[in-house]
Amino acid sequence: MSEIIKFSFERAKFSRTILIHGMIRVFHLSVSPFILLVVVGIASLLLTNFILAQDNEPFELRSGVIVDPGRGLIYVMNSKSGIDALDITKGTLEWRIDHAAKPLALSGNHLICQVESKSGDNELRIAVLNVLEQGQLVLTNFIRLPSDVRVSISDTLNSTFNTYGRIQDGEFILAWKYSYRPIRGIPPQDSERDKKKQSITGSDTPKITSGIIKLDLASGEMSILREEEARISLVPRGPNLAAHERLARINGIQFISADNAHVLTSQRVTNDSVWDKYGWTIYERTTGKQIAQIKNHKSYAPFFVFNSMLFYETGPYMRRIDKSLEDEPLKIRAVSLQTGEVVWSWEIRDTKYRGPFPG
């Protein structure tokens, strides 16, 4: 729990105490004890709900996956070209839309999304959806980026377009980066000198263009923003905890959960003959209490814990089982902390380029 949340929590507790004492003084002489008890109980419940709401802030699990713990939903890029809203506990589809493609951030009831662009287009299109109305379109707008930028959601053979956004003072701030690498064949080489000459030419160095835009969530207006005007970090933090953030008396690298509430450590427990060769141990960040241990084939994956379940990214991978190959797509998976069994999983859109490369 951050210092801001701690402060809000303590302030809410103090406010509740003052409110309750004030009610007792106001109503003490004019109402029956039963009515007074009801009024005080309702006020206490409302303020308790406010306190709990501090821990229900939305967050990004991975690019294109926004978790909404307050409503018990996860918004994901589906495997086609739209967005799915899933029940976080059951993994069931609550609603689906196809007028936007990538969830970027959540502000109140509004889900800010990137719209699929036309091939070769330099227009960054943003849509705002009302999550209370099953993704109904609230507004849409676009802004033209530099002419040599090609906006996309999925990578191509020689280019990527990445986005990372945050809410700031009623505005949505989005950092974008476009990377382009020319496709070049390998020319015949007659000598080691030719090989060395080619390796130092820098012809394969990607060209990178980047910028920041802001979207006013009230008016829908989009504009260019200078980097110094963005007062929040526009670079996602890495999962590794710094030395001063680590839990004490726990060895190994420590990874932070997507909602900053838990810490994961990973140890290799067997050799490559076993698929799940890593042991994950998960702790509460505030108390250091161990809450779960599971095995996984990866040393780390983006994760969070909610409602006695562990949620994490898995895939894509191809695995040989007996004489057949298992082709597993990119998914979000939910595992029970009590039983270790998979509760649900859902395929999401894989934006990495996995096609052929020139020979």
Topology:
Layout: H1 3-27, H2 33-53, E1 59-62, E2 65-68, E3 73-77, E4 83-87, E5 93-97, E6 102-107, E7 110-114, E8 123-130, E9 136-144, E10 159-168, E11 171-180, H3 192-199, E12 207-216, E13 222-225, E14 254-256, E15 262-268, E16 278-284, E17 290-296, E18 303-306, E19 309-314, E20 317-321, E21 324-328, E22 331-336, E23 342-347
Antiparallel strand pairs: 1-2, 2-3, 3-4, 4-5, 6-7, 7-8, 8-9, 10-11, 11-12, 12-13, 14-15, 15-16, 16-17, 18-19, 19-22, 20-21, 22-23
Helix pairs in contact: 1-2
Percentage of helical residues?
A: 10-25%
- What number is the mean pLDDT? 83
Q: What is the second-level CATH architecture of the largest domain?
A: Beta Barrel
Return residue spans where pLDDT drops below 50 for at least 5 consecutive residues: 1-31, 33-54
Number of strands: 23
Q: Which band does the percent of strand residues land in?
A: 35-45%
Order of helices and strands: HHEEEEEEEEEEEHEEEEEEEEEEEE
Overview of the molecule:
The protein has helices at 3-27, 33-53, 192-199; strands at residues 59-62, 65-68, 73-77, 83-87, 93-97, 102-107, 110-114, 123-130, 136-144, 159-168, 171-180, 207-216, 222-225, 254-256, 262-268, 278-284, 290-296, 303-306, 309-314, 317-321, 324-328, 331-336, 342-347. The chain has 359 residues and is α+β, with helices and mostly antiparallel strands. The protein folds into three domains: 3-56; 59-229, Beta Barrel (Thrombin, subunit H); 243-347, no CATH class. A hairpin with a 2-residue loop joins strand 10 and strand 11 (171-180).
In brief, what are we looking at here?
Helix content is 15%, strand content 39%. The chain has helices at 3-27, 33-53, 192-199, and strands at residues 59-62, 65-68, 73-77, 83-87, 93-97, 102-107, 110-114, 123-130, 136-144, 159-168, 171-180, 207-216, 222-225, 254-256, 262-268, 278-284, 290-296, 303-306, 309-314, 317-321, 324-328, 331-336, 342-347.
